[in-house]
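Regression test case RT-17, inverse folding.

Input:
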């Protein structure tokens, strides 16, 4: 009975990630902060950024004015986030993604690392997908606007190996 209940919990968590039930609008946050503070509200579900710490570093411009943004995601032990590409068409909405916000500047290229393949059985079906564990480095090449700054956001969803998933989180960064 306990194994059956754990299977149901896993299925519900995966469905919630697919549907983006807990995903909030990206436009509601300030730079380098989560888009909302559900993780600090008693009685509310924890968000993925409670087990994944995001930081970034912006390199000096190259000869064309482009800048390399290095995004590091430090994932707590026992947790993982979905890779990009995730490697499973049914899970593409759960991929870790870097986006340009607000339309200022240009996101030229994003280089995602290769994930680790994870296999699990879900209701008599074996599914396979890629995840990130430990510390992950994502590189983004940007062309900042000629004046002012631009904003990047990284979106991810975290799950643990006991089958529990947290609400997706989005963290934004300002690039000057």
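Golden output:
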């Amino acid at each position: 009975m306990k194994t059956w209940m754990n299977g149901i919990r896993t299925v519900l968590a995966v469905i919630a990630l697919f549907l983006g039930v807990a995903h909030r609008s990206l436009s509601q946050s300030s730079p380098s902060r989560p888009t909302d503070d559900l993780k600090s509200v008693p009685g509310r579900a924890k968000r993925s950024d409670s087990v994944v710490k995001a930081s970034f570093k912006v390199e000096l411009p190259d000869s064309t004015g482009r800048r390399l943004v290095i995004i590091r995601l430090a994932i707590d032990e026992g947790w993982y986030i979905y890779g990009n590409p995730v490697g499973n068409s049914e899970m593409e909405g759960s991929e870790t993604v870097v986006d340009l916000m607000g339309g200022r500047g240009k996101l030229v290229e994003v280089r995602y690392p290769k994930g680790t393949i994870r296999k699990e059985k879900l209701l008599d079906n074996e599914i396979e997908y890629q995840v990130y564990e430990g510390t992950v480095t994502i590189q983004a090449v940007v062309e900042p606007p000629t004046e002012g700054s631009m904003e990047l956001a990284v979106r991810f969803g975290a799950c643990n190996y006991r089958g529990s998933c947290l609400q997706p989180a989005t963290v934004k960064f300002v690039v000057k």
